[in-house]
Structures are given as C-alpha cells and as structure tokens.
Amino acid sequence: MRYMLLIYDNEKEWANMSEAESGSLYAEYGTFTESIAASGNLVHGDPLEPTPTATTVRVRNGKTQTTDGPFAETREQLGGFYIVEAKDLDEAIAIAVRIPSARIGSIEIRPVMQLANMAPGGEQSSAQRTNM
C-alpha cells in the first residue's frame, strides 16, 4: 500500500539554525532517503519551498481567488513529503519515525487512495487513454 508522509516543520526554527545544524539535518535527510530507496520503499519525495512562495487558490461562485502564502497561520508548515510503499500502517510508521524532522516537527501519514480507473502512478492507464 502507498502512504504519503507529510513533513511539517516550524520554518522559523529552521531559519534560526546555524549553518552546521541545518547542514547536519540535510545530511541526515540524504542518508534517510538513500536508505528507503535501497529498501524499495521510496516511490517519490521532495522538499517544498518556504511558505512565502505559496499561493492558495479558491473558486467560489465561479470566481477564482488567489492569496499569497498558506491557507492559515500555523505553528508548523508543510515542508516536504515522501510517498512510500509499505505493507501496512505499522511499516509506514516505522519509516516515518526515521525522518529527521520527526524530532523537531511532525509527520502526518495518509494512505494514498487507489482509484479503480487510475493506474498506480495516478495517471490513466494506456487502455483508458486509447478509449477516450
């Protein structure tokens, strides 16, 4: 089963880290990512740019509204994600606790919904595309 591991951090804490501290944390991320790739659990993962670069989009009554930044002020901000393959929630938790930011932020684990008409990567299968 696929799980999305959403990584929440406090951006202010990251900004206040020394270069050595943040460098050490980034190195831990590299080691962690290599280990879950080697074990076959890694499907995909990426860090996100800081929240000031975000744009929130809403459509209300047919009108598009955009605002700069995240939806709401929170103590922790979404900073990145991994999509992993795990046999069950327990294995997903065992992977999540190894994410370096679990010590300074939080990791939200969400099962990825597999829709019957979608291929595993979230794209339509080739058979579905040819029947359009």
Account of the 3D structure:
The protein has one domain (2-124): Dimeric alpha+beta barrel (Alpha-Beta Plaits). Helices cover 30% and strands 31% of the residues. The protein has helices at 11-16, 19-38, 89-96, 126-130; strands at 2-9, 42-47, 55-60, 63-68, 77-85, 106-111. The chain is built from four helices and six strands; from the N terminus they run E-H-H-E-E-E-E-H-E-H. The protein is of the alpha+beta class. A four-stranded antiparallel β-sheet has the order 2-5-1-6. It has a two-stranded antiparallel ribbon with strand order 3-4.
CATH topology tier name: Alpha-Beta Plaits
- Amount of helix: 25-40%
Main beta sheet, described? 4 strands, antiparallel
CATH architecture: 2-Layer Sandwich
Count of discrete structural domains: 1
**Could you tell me the strand content as a percent range?**
25-35%
What ranges have pLDDT less than 50 throughout 5 or more consecutive residues? 125-132
Give the CA-CA distance, first to last residue.
29 Å
**Secondary structure: number of strands:** 6
User: Tell me, what's the shape?
Assistant: flat
The CATH superfamily label reads Dimeric alpha+beta barrel
Strand order of the largest sheet: 2-5-1-6
Order of helices and strands: EHHEEEEHEH
Radius of gyration: 18 Å
Structural class: alpha+beta
The CATH class turns out to be Alpha Beta
Short description:
With 132 residues, this protein is of the alpha+beta class. Helices cover 30% and strands 31% of the residues. The protein has one domain (2-124): Alpha-Beta Plaits.
